[in-house]
């Protein structure tokens, strides 16, 4: 509809910002508090963390500190997992080392046992040979002493008969006694040659027997302490393995 001549167009509205401020408005504007600082731009992960702490009303500084602590805790958990894996690997290595050492000790004991058995067999063979020689020597010595005793008795009896009874000497008996005496003399010479060898063999056996006695006495004296020491070492290794398993 066209405007008539008597109708005036409406005046445009005057913005309040263009109007001059009164003294009270100027005073309120000066005392108006400054707006809070804008928060640091957040990444998606930070936004999620921010969402976790939304009920705590944290300042940006406190939030950043909490995020740093959270990262440190995560790093510590990872380090603990790494240490656990390392301890498990070390425990496995310790078990393998103990197993290898046990195998080596067992092999050494078996080798040493075979060597000791061979030496013991040699000693037993020497002892048996010396015992046989000793037994033969003693038997021949007993026979020699018996022959000499009988010969001495016969000769003394014959001498008494010749002196006291004035009997004639039977040459056949004298020859038999001379034969026995010759045989006894040869036996004495043979035993005298054999005795040094028998003596050395018996001394060697006595020496080995004395060494065996000393070893056995030392074994009986030291073995209880060795057992206790081995038990203490086993307990220590058990504690170490239990600690490593944790």
From TrEMBL:
Residues 1-46 are annotated as: Disordered. Gene3D superfamilies: Actin interacting protein 3, C-terminal domain. Pfam families: AIP3 (PF03915). GO terms for cellular component: cytoplasm. InterPro entries: AIP3-like_C, SRCIN1. It comes from the Eukaryota. Residues 63-223 form the Actin interacting protein 3-like C-terminal domain. Residues 134-161 form a coiled coil. Keywords: Coiled coil. PANTHER family: COILED-COIL DOMAIN-CONTAINING PROTEIN CG32809, P140CAP/SNIP-RELATED. This is Actin interacting protein 3-like C-terminal domain-containing protein. It comes from Ladona fulva (Scarce chaser dragonfly).
